[in-house]
């Protein structure tokens, strides 16, 4: 049986009209399906209002206690619950979850000698049986980019990584299609040209574009996760504009499709 996992980024969520259109389109995608959301841009804005500075290292937010409070409120509260309410309006029976709810995504606090990331989690285990029990009831799980550790901490977790880990965990039961939606038409071969979409991306091309600096910033962790998902058993991985989510799922052709070789 097929399962669709869609990840939606912060630039889409931050735009109410764009986000509403995306959720309307998402509601047309047949179940079973899962939504994973980011919200980094909104967390940065809220933190700024509270006088808390944002520092990102290799695509991950340094998350001290004050920032953990911000991301817990923003991702687990504001963003997650707003999405769930709108999805109910579009007749998707959504349930909003952090990884701590029902212990569904266990992480370990990120330990890197050179950088103190604070309350940032690297995912260890996803309870696919619990997720499947929701899917079996026709419920659409909506995951905030938060996980937890055995010490009882909430941990901030990169949303692209979380989508990849959930998608891979579900491959035991489903043929999984993973779609990363954002505000551009796909992975671009020319950052200045919004139409220069790379239709098919293979690992060797990725390395080439990365070395040339054409693929950079947030696209690097996104593609690392996307290729990992493909290597770990996800059937199809697409990176596309949020407006093309239905095309990506129904026709399997939109934006950039990843191939292993
Ligand atoms: N070659 C590229 N093609 C498209 N986007 C790119 C490329 N290189 C870097 N980017 C940047 O990557 C960003 C997407 O990553 P990120 O900001 O983490 O998105 P999201 O928050 O949606 O996960 C784009 O907004 C774009 O600025
Ligand atoms: C640890 C870490 O960096 N977590 C991310 C989680 C949100 C996210 O990934 O949001 P986007 O998908 O919108 O970028 C952050 O706080 O920015």
Automatic annotation (TrEMBL):
Site annotation Transition state stabilizer: residues: 7, 222
One protein family per Pfam: AA_kinase
Limits of the Aspartate/glutamate/uridylate kinase domain: 2-240
Top-rank taxon, per record: Bacteria
Cellular compartments per GO CC: cytoplasm
Single annotated GO MF: acetylglutamate kinase activity
Catalytic activity: N-acetyl-L-glutamate + ATP = N-acetyl-L-glutamyl 5-phosphate + ADP
Major site of localization recorded for this protein: cytoplasm
EC number(s) per entry: 2.7.2.8
Pathway(s) it belongs to: Amino-acid biosynthesis; L-arginine biosynthesis; N(2)-acetyl-L-ornithine from L-glutamate: step 2/4
Keywords tagged on the record: Amino-acid biosynthesis, Arginine biosynthesis, ATP-binding, Cytoplasm, Kinase, Nucleotide-binding, Transferase
Subcellular location: Cytoplasm
Binding residues for substrate: 39-40, 61, 156
This protein's record includes keyword Transferase: yes
Gene Ontology BP annotations: L-arginine biosynthetic process via ornithine
Cited NCBIfam families: argB (TIGR00761)
PANTHER family for the chain: N-ACETYLGLUTAMATE SYNTHASE (PTHR23342), N-ACETYLGLUTAMATE SYNTHASE, MITOCHONDRIAL (PTHR23342:SF0)
Family designation: Belongs to the acetylglutamate kinase family. ArgB subfamily.
Record function comment: Catalyzes the ATP-dependent phosphorylation of N-acetyl-L-glutamate.
Name of the protein: Acetylglutamate kinase
Protein source organism: Arcicella rosea
Phylogenetic classification of the source organism: Bacteria, Pseudomonadati, Bacteroidota, Cytophagia, Cytophagales
